[in-house]
Design goal:
The chain contains 4 helices and no strands. The protein has 153 residues and is mostly helical. The chain is elongated, with a radius of gyration of 24 Å.
Amino acid sequence: MDPTYTVSASPENPTPPALVIDETGKAFLLETTKWARFFAILGFIVIACMVIAAFFVSAIYGSMLDDYNIPASMITVVYLLGALINFFPCLYLFNFSVKTKRALQSNDQFTLNLGFSNLKSYYKYIGILIIILLIFYAIAVIGITIGVSLVHH
């Protein structure tokens, strides 16, 4: 058995060897960095559009919002908050792409670990965000259910 593929300690080999990324793994990771960079840049473009829209939407729909007693500045804040929330996962994804590509080209383990750290942060951020959204959805469903049941009685 080739020792580079042994990933756990055994009585014959008390110290497991370091993980090795072969050329096939490098090729897959390099392709992944390209897609990660694409999605990160696309995300930054969407964020820029959200920031621009934050000011135009409130100006364009300000009079209509006044009819519903909603201040136009509230729409601006919501758009800017959305842009801020979306900025960090894009940054993590972009950093993963840049650092991982650099690490694979220079065989730099430290930079590769930084790249993977950014990927971990990306997934952690998205996971927490999804949990928060699911909680809001559950609260909304419960609130709507209670509201509808109160109206029918």
